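TICKET: design request
STATUS: open
ATTACHED STRUCTURE:
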C-alpha cells in the first residue's frame, strides 16, 4: 500500500552534514507514522527517529539527539532526516519506514512496528 524510496546518502565527513529524503507513494505519508532506522555491517537494525502523521511529534534515540532532525512535508509525501555533526559511528545503511496503524510518537520503536520499508541508502562518514 505504501512504497518508499530513500535518497541523499553518500559520503560525509565527520562534523559535516547530510540530508536523507524518503519519497512515499501509494498511501500518503500524511496517514502514516514515519521512521528512520539504520544498520551497520554486522549489526542489527536499530531505531533512529520517528515522526507523527502531523509532524508535530518526534522522537530520537540518545545517540542522535541534538544532531539529527526528522521532518516531513505531507504535501509532497516526503520525509527527511537532516544529519548534522556527523560521527564515524553514524556510518550505516539508513532505512525509511512507514506504519499506517496509529501509535503515539513518544518512545523508541522496534523494526517490526513498521510495515513498509524502503531499500535503504548508504551513509559513510569519514574522518
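STATUS: resolved
RESOLUTION: sequence designed for all positions
ATTACHED SEQUENCE:
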Amino acid at each position: 500500500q505504501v512504497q518508499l524510496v530513500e535518497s541523499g546518502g553518500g559520503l560525509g565527513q565527520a562534523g559535516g552534514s547530510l540530508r536523507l529524503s524518503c519519497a512515499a507513494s501509494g498511501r500518503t505519508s500524511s496517514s502514516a507514522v514515519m521512521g528512520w532506522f539504520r544498520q551497520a555491517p554486522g549489526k542489527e537494525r536499530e531505531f533512529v527517529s520517528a515522526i507523527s502523521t502531523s509532524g508535530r511529534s518526534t522522537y530520537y534515540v540518545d545517540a542522535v539527539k541534538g544532531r539529527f532532525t526528522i521532518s516531513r512535508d505531507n504535501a509532497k509525501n516526503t520525509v527527511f532526516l537532516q544529519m548534522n555533526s556527523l560521527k564515524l559511528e553514524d556510518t550505516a545503511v539508513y532505512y525509511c519506514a512507514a506504519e499506517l496503524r496509529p501509535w503515539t510518537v513518544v518512545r523508541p520503536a522496534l523494526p517490526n512496528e513498521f510495515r513498509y520499508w524502503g531499500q535503504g541508502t548508504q551513509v559513510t562518514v569519514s574522518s
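CLOSING REMARK: The first strand starts at residue 2 and ends at 7. The mean pLDDT is 94.
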